[in-house]
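To the structural biology subgroup,

Please find below the input and predicted structure for Transporter, which we are adding to the shared reference set this quarter. The sequence is reproduced verbatim from the submission form. If anyone notices a discrepancy with their own records, reply to this email rather than editing the shared folder directly, so we keep one authoritative version.
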Amino acid sequence: MAEVERGSWGGQLEFILTCVGYAVGLGNVWRFPYLTFQNGGGAFLIPYILMLILLGIPVFFFEICLGQFASLGPLAIWNLSPLFKGVGVAMMSVGLMVALSYCILMSYILFFFFASMGPLPWKDCANSWNTNKCITSNIFANSTLLEQIIKDRNITRAEIKTPSEEYFYNQVLKSSSGLDEPGGIVWQLALCLLLAWVIVFVVLLKGISSLGKVVYFTSTFPYIMMTVMLVRGATLPGASKGIEFYLKPDIAKLKESSVWSDAASQIFYSLSTCTGGLIAMASYNKFKNNTFRDSMIVPFINCGTSLFAGFAIFSVLGFMAKEKGVEVSDVAATGPGLVFVVYPEALSRMAGGTVFSILFFIMMLTLGFSSLFSMVESFFVMLMDEFPDTLRCNSTRPIIFRGVCIVIFYLISLPMVTKGGFYLFSLVNEFAGGFPRLITGLFELLVVTMVYGYSRFAEDISLMIGKKPGIYFQVTWCFLSPLLIVVSN
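Predicted structure (tokenized):
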């Protein structure tokens, strides 16, 4: 039976938009702005841009060249050195863990999106899930009243919870006391998770031929929403204070090694390198596609998006700080705490909060799905390229394979939507996004440059783009990038 052809992108723009959608994700909104604020404000841009030049762009260019030349997924490509095929297996494993945890986040965002359709349920403390520790943010500005409430309720300041905090942990997650108490499945989250996986299946039904069309929307629409949120945030009282906290430079911070380590890890995290996705997406390029051009466009768009998102986030945090009568540093947060606790609280306090809440979570949905689609497709590509005779033997086999995988992924994800599931999700998310990714990146560079040979790889690249990589790429691939990966650990 004839093997179905792999296919290719409908045009160069499809590949670029897919890479932008893959790289620009939730981390650009909830991780970069906080790291900038925490690591010296505007001064953090110095190590960040240096790491982009010495680590981000070289590794990005390296991976898309590797995928484009071989026209194979991140597993089959290691036939170049079969002894190190474990690097491909590691990439596949890490990429799958990232995808599974990402889909859990999408279930949370879907939950909040649907909840935003009516009066915002996290606006006050008059709900069945609230406790006597719940105090609305407007009370914080009146210290006398706040102290009286604390005294009357026999609680401490440290025990105070906001309505959005109790909504997320008590109503959305129905969180237990720990991982040792998993509890039952939270069916509302399980349904949202099912919807998320169904959306992924529908979009990836025909592989890159369907994904390449969807990215025209998912990779561009978030910028419209981000601009709307920035304009709204900039008109709020206290916005300028938030932006000042975001970018005010503290040069002394550059003396701290953690600042440079954070810059390196953020570059790795935000460009979505070393999980096989870029190799998989590039494997569908035309052989003569200009990979150098693409490796300049995508990383700079990604970094610009991170910086832009910071203005949208911190303008609203400045408003929140003014409302509560506290410093911006007291309301700033990173990760899920920003998206599901702090920002929703701010949205509930502003005029037209329901509308802007819907817009915000639409933005988060498109950002998240644009990354998730590429993550999952990369996994499919890895296995289909490794077992083409089985998985590409006819036109229906890839669809069946994708459907079976999606069902398995959903079942594997279910423990993370139990009452103790958030703790499991946090473990998976922390593990997949950290050390393993850096290790796969290190071995990837070392194997290709030292075992396969830098000279051979440079010749391969010259066949595609007409010239060999310059001294900049030779130094970064063979020395600086591996060194920075080791040091950042």
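Summary notes: DSSP finds 22 helices and no strands in the chain. The chain has a mean pLDDT of 89.

Regards,
Lab coordination
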